Structures are given as C-alpha cells and as structure tokens.
Amino acid sequence: SNYQPVPLGAVGEIFIGGVGNARGYLNQPALTAARFTPDPFSEDSKSRMYKTGDLARYLPDGNLVYMGRSDDQVKIRGFRIELGEIEARLQEHPLVSEVVVVPLGKGSDKRLLAYMVMTRTEEHEPQSTAILRSHLATRLPEYMVPAAFVRLDVFPLTPNGKLDRCALPTPGDDDYARQ
Q1: Closest by CA position to 104, among listed 68, 145, 147
Q2: Which residues partner with 37 through β-bridges?
Q3: How far apart are the two ends of the chain, measured CA to CA in Å?
Q4: Which of 36, 53, 63, 148 is exposed most, by the fewest CB atoms within 10 A?
Q5: Could you tell me which Pfam families the record lists for this protein (predicted)?
Q6: Start-end of CATH 2.30.38.10 domains in the chain
Q7: Cα–Cα distance between 100 and 48 in angstroms, integer?
C-alpha cells in the first residue's frame, strides 16, 4: 500500500516496471489509472509500474513464492486475511490435493470455509479435520484457521473450466472443526 519493498518472507503485491513496460490499457483511461502508477524507483518522472494484483513473498534465495491474488483478501473480526496464504499452507499437507478457502456470512458472523480434494480416494479417517486444523494452527494465527473443512471428490467447475464458487456445498455439522 505504500509502494515500498516488503521484508524478506512478508507477503506483498507484485509490481512490474522498467524498460518495455506498457504505458497503459488501450482506450481505457480509468483502468490505466488504477493499474499503472508512477514508479517511485525510477529517475524518469514518466515511468510507470504495473500493479498486477498478484501477491508473493521473497524466499531467502531471492525467488518469489506466489501466494494468490490481492482481491482474495477478506476482513474477518477486524483482521485482514489473504485466502491464498491459507490455501498454500493447506496444500503443504500430504492429505490435501487441491484446496480453495472462501468466506461465508456477513459482519461479525463471517467465517472461513476450506473446500478440499484429498490425495487419496479411500475413506479418510474421521480425525482428518482435526489433523488439518492442527497443521494450520502451527503455521497461521488462530483467526486464519477455517471454521469448517469440507471434503469433495472434485471441485465444481463452470462451463469454461473455472471454479464454480456458487456450486460449493453448504458445510454439514461434521465439517466444522472441533476445538
């Protein structure tokens, strides 16, 4: 938000600048103004940076780890949460093949739900929700741990092959994590 590099390991938005960067969107001045910002790191006053909307964090070796999109941020109980970070931590667990985390509810009733395709097709042990909750609790603050973990065989897709968030099922009582 302040157009400064983030510390090593912290999540920040990726901006692209330099020679060869586009000057904006053709015939779309409002979108150009929103996405192309003055480059504070260039000596050229006309230089612009492109605001990608992608979030990443630096590794100690200088590589970037993609963390999701900035528009995947939600605010729950006063905390700003990057859904992609929760998804990345769940994806690290060997039980999880694919995952999407979504908010449910409004205002003070808003909570997080994790929808997952598991790595094995056989019936998963009943404690898998507790295992995944514990996995996240050691890696993320409590407010970032989903309230429910819903197992699916496959994710519902739209006709163009994208995740159909509207078709995700409502969690059942057994999907909610017990503390």
Answers
A1: 147
A2: 49
A3: 35
A4: 63
A5: AMP-binding_C
A6: 11-62
A7: 33
Mean pLDDT of the chain: 85
Q: On the CB side of 165, how many CA atoms lie within 13 Å of its CA? A: 8
- Read off the amino acid at residue 92: E
Position 123 scores a pLDDT of 56
Distance of CA 147 to the CA centre of its chain: 17
Q: Which CATH class is domain 11-62?
A: mainly beta
- 147: which 2 tokens? 């309230």
What is the pLDDT averaged over residues 95-115?
89
User: HSE (CB half, 13 Å, CA atoms) of 57?
Assistant: 12
Does residue 105 have a pLDDT over 80?
yes
Beta strands in 18-158 (DSSP E): 36-38, 48-58, 64-69, 73-76, 79-82, 96-104, 111-118, 148-152
**Farthest CA pair distance, the chain:** 61
- DSSP string spanning 29-64? HHHHHHHEEE-TT-SSTT-EEEEEEEEEEE-TTS-E
Residues of the chain with CATH 3.30.300.30: 69-175
pLDDT at 42 over 80: yes
